[in-house]
Structure prediction request, 363 residues.
Amino acid sequence: MKTFSYTVNDSKTVKAALGRGMANIPADFPEIFNGVDKVCLVTGTDAPPSLRARALALFPEKKGHHFYFWLPPSEKAKTLEQAGELAAFLFEHGFSRNSLIIAAGGGAVTDLAGFAASIYMRGIAWVSVPTTFLAQIDAGLGGKTAVNLAGAKNIAGTFHQPALSVCDTAFLDSLPHSELRSGAGELVKYAMIGPGALRRVVEKNLSKTLAGDKSALTACVSACAAYKIKLVAKDERDESGLRERLNFGHTAGHAFEAMAGGRLPHGEAVARGLRFALIASREKGLLGKAAFHKADALIDALRLPPAGAVRRDFRQFLSLVSRDKKARGAANRFLLAEGPGRLRAAEDLKPAILKKAFEGALK
Ligand SMILES: NC(=O)c1ccc[n+]([C@@H]2O[C@H](COP(=O)([O-])OP(=O)(O)OC[C@H]3O[C@@H](n4cnc5c(N)ncnc54)[C@H](O)[C@@H]3O)[C@@H](O)[C@H]2O)c1
Prediction:
């Protein structure tokens, strides 16, 4: 097990444990678990039984101390109503500021449970236990919590760091190929935004992760999680531009996800958003042909299924990207690539460029 401890802007200490086959986490982190009066384990109703069994190996049950809350599947969990139901459940069962939420699941579970932890009694502690590949390299780390509103992604949310993130790659053994591929969409992003060493880890392991290779998955979780933690420690609130790199491909990706009405896995939407950003970068003259093809080949390696669920409605796309959190009043704002690891923000891209990138991304 590798452990990380980092301090965020508000001087709070945040910890992360990465590895495979961990057990009895409270014994390793007494400073977090001693004195906790109640624990609520939050998981999704669609999680396999093995997920709950593994979560209980990490956090052994204590009678009268453990409570369980189940969320609806995937994105259906990310609503204000679900956050309210979880908060009401905590209240009915006497949860206090000495209590703890443990969120064990994919990014939808960690986003929602983290959000509920941030509003219940103005904020109680929580532990993030990401169980998908995507959540272990991204969603389950960094303390951004969110719910969706009015058919758009992550419109209400908070920054609320988990006291601890536990990324145990043994969870990934039960993950279907479609979820490995979705996670690999975010993995490819790291190759485009990160330093050379991270890019080499991704390039070396990408096809093996898609095949479920355990050591390749563990190597990628270690490298990507460590990189994300470093960015979050320097720019927790996404203010200096450092953390924003993690959103490469996400402006278009979130629009595709919304336009598919929840039927496009997040990582596939991100992969298509990455292709959108690469095409727009090339068309704007920022990215040379060779660099474009090298980066685009990583997306090809994912062998994405057709994005049939995404409505081919360019006007709706324009409307969604103009309302993106990062647009800041511009007609549109995207992170574009100038080369491997070199990004720059561009505003008010011309419709002709956007249309070409939109069509290329959904091909
Ligand atoms: N907060 C952040 O910084 C951040 C970053 C990236 C993505 N996200 C969010 O994360 C969400 C996507 O997360 P996701 O890709 O994990 O999807 P998800 O949470 O929808 O989970 C996908 C599916 O995998 C199942 N699952 C979870 N663990 C499993 C396991 N070990 N074995 C078998 N099945 C398992 C779930 O039950 C679900 O059906 C999106 O809502 C996205 O917006 C948040």
Notes: The chain has two domains: 2-174, 177-361. Residues 44, 46-48, 51, 73-75, 78, 105-109, 111, 131-132, 134-135, 138-139, 142, 144, 153-154, 171, 174-175, 179, 182, 266-267 surround nicotinamide-adenine-dinucleotide (CB under 6 Å).
